[in-house]
Amino acid sequence: MVIAVRALLFDVMGTVVDWHGGVVAGLETWGAARGISADWAKFCIECHAAFPPLRAEVNTGKRAWANFDELLREALESQFPKLGLTELYQKDLDELVALWHAMPPWPDSVAAMQRLRRRYILSTLSNAHVAMLIDMAKAAGLPWDAIVGVDLFHRYKPAPETYLGATALLGCQPGQVMLVASHPYDLAAAAKCGLRTCYVSRPLEYGAGIAFEAPPKPGQCDLMVGDLGKLADLMEC
Amino acid sequence: MVIAVRALLFDVMGTVVDWHGGVVAGLETWGAARGISADWAKFCIECHAAFPPLRAEVNTGKRAWANFDELLREALESQFPKLGLTELYQKDLDELVALWHAMPPWPDSVAAMQRLRRRYILSTLSNAHVAMLIDMAKAAGLPWDAIVGVDLFHRYKPAPETYLGATALLGCQPGQVMLVASHPYDLAAAAKCGLRTCYVSRPLEYGAGIAFEAPPKPGQCDLMVGDLGKLADLMEC
Question: CB distance A145–B147 less than 8 Å?
């Protein structure tokens, strides 16, 4: 193997599952059933963009801990008026939040995880919470050894408590753990904590033709792969 | 199904895996390699009996949080002089602690869990810590949806924080969760927190011919079963 670690921590949304494809498909079905037409791909991106400032408020202590579902409800309530919908009922919000709990895996994810799991501990380290990650794992058939969500730390990535907290829960030292993620900010924060890092390119994460983040430069990550099957190859699984 | 819940929380040692059989077999091999003969079954029971007072010290705040491995090291160091061994090296302790991380499942456990998992969230709620539970799951092939150990709460069962903490992490209300365990004290504490309860009879938990705890009386648990396959039958899985 190219790199000696005991455990792999995976970012989930974008890295392992196709949140944009899954949520947009769900929104289209939801809207069609209610006669609401909208550019759901754009709407989904706008909801997604509402998260970073909300997470920063939690991490800086400006607001009390609130999990992904709670922040998503706020984002939905702020975005829906743009579609001309001024009133969302509790039932609507419940249905919409549920869309974010069941996203399809990228085509390579499950088979590669099954290979990697034979040799390594596979855990989530996602900005979702444990209950949401369980729903996502059951919906997509993801074979995790452990589910670690940021509700265990009451901080969002990229706060160091999340990387170091997950590492400690797995009984590892930082150098024994590699973060696998498609987002450079996440990998950079993990590397600062002493973790090894693997960038996975997911060019379709935000939908076809939309690229939000430049990939890391060579040397900024320990590994850079095009999909999780390539990671399993490199790790000799 | 006989009882409507969303998630099953399992005690692990004794309920799902045969800690006594696994550890005694490991101790026999370990002793034979060093020319140490002892009544390892008795030794294993005595180590086990050292735990409750140590856990109580943590729960009452008399001592800081210490996980299963740390308490086990203390128990081993207090028990080994009885065998005429006055010095245990760090390497010995590491090897002995590792025996407690790899226990065989009871013959019915894995198949029943695979059935139950189709319909319910299956999580551990063990007095072991997350890293130890991951090792046990990988060694025994236990198909958990989530790993919850008491290191997440810094309290040992039967402290209510453990049952209520696990319930909250799973996104459930107490009445939506059932604790499955072979120990009446554990089930009684879960019931006090509002969880449903299922007693599993494991007459060989402490070795053949040794019964430590009387089963609960009828009416003290929601369900009482002879093995996990019977639970899967009752839950219509």
Answer: yes
